[in-house]
Amino acid sequence: MTGARTDHASEGRVAGSFDGAFAVDGVLLDIDDTLVDLHRAMDATLRAVARQTGLAVPTELEDEYSLDFSRDPDGFYDRYLAGELDFATQRQYRVRAAHERLGLEPIADLDGWDAMYTAILPTHFTAFDDVVPLLDALEAAGIPYGALSNNVADYQRAKLDRAGLERIGILIGTDTLGVAKPDPAIFREGARQVGSEPGRTLYVGDNPAVDAVGATDAGLVGVWLDRALAGGRGSVGQGTGLDEGGAGAFTGPVVSSLTDVMHLIAA
User: Fold this and answer.
1) What is the pLDDT of residues 212-231, one digit of tens each?
2) Among 108, 124, 140, which residue terminates a domain?
3) Which element (helix H / strand E) includes 88?
4) How many domains does the chain have?
5) Residue that terminates a domain, selected from 124, 143, 159
6) Is the pTM of this model over 0.85?
7) Domain membership flag for residue 222
8) For residues 75, 80, 85 and 87, what is the CA-based torsion angle, rounded to 10 degrees?
């Protein structure tokens, strides 16, 4: 996740197959909802906190409640990235807004809610099942890799470790240079740290605008990971360049699984 979560599967951005391959000396990967299933972790945590605090979230609204919090339609996470809110406050604002939109009872003690959420969330951090196969393949090919995220490095380091991804040694966060994606500087710093030129660095993320377009604009090879891509695992498509819903005009490669990334790397 790179700011507000958005769902792009229905936007019709994939046109046929992508047959190209790139000369690659390094690979960078987004973390949230690319390496670590943050959406599932947040959903499980929201439900657990609601049960333990006695919040009345009707069963029929649980999915919508989770989705509203995850999507963050008010852009509170983006305000955190801009330095307007601290991390805890943006999360409290998001859950408060979700309650207001769905007509749920207000949370009387937001600090207490946040403390419980913070304690439970890491217990649900897991890596997607396509992560280890990709890292194994990159290591076998001798291609260095790292992670680049729109959150501070220490927080994301703990997240990777909790998800069993301690092997990812290179990690660039928003505090590395004091900028966030899609600022070109953070992508170029990632390329520098994995030891490759930007144009020979593949960057893979789940957000087409912030990740794929942002990396491409920074001179890297941007790849959009769309797990809902028609055809499922084994599908490699190409962005159509449409700009629907503010998702960004992207014409590069789109993969349905991290295991498809190796198909984009020239032997």
Assistant:
1) 999 999 999 999 999 887 55
2) 124
3) helix 87-102
4) 2
5) 124
6) yes
7) yes
8) 110
- Say which amino acid occupies 59: T
Question: pLDDT tens, 60-108?
Answer: 999 999 999 999 999 999 999 999 999 999 999 999 999 999 999 899 9
CA torsion, points 4, 79, 155, 187, in degrees to nearest 10? 70
Question: Looking at the structure, do residues 199 and 79 belong to the same domain, yes or no?
Answer: no
CA distance 117 to 123: 10
Q: Quick one: 165 and 255 in the same domain? A: yes
Q: Tell me if 210 sits within 8 A of 187, measured CB to CB.
A: no
What are 240's two structure tokens? 């159509």
Same domain, 180 and 257: yes
Q: Are residues 30 and 85 in the same domain?
A: no
Please, what's the b/e burial string for 204-231 (b: 16 or more CB within 10 A of its CB; e: otherwise)?
A: bbbbbbbbbbbbbebbbbbbbbbbebee
Domain membership of residue 50 as a residue range? 38-124
Would you say residue 194 lies in a domain? yes
> What is the strand order of the sheet 201-205 is part of?
14-17, 236-239, 253-255, 221-225, 201-205, 26-29, 145-148, 170-172
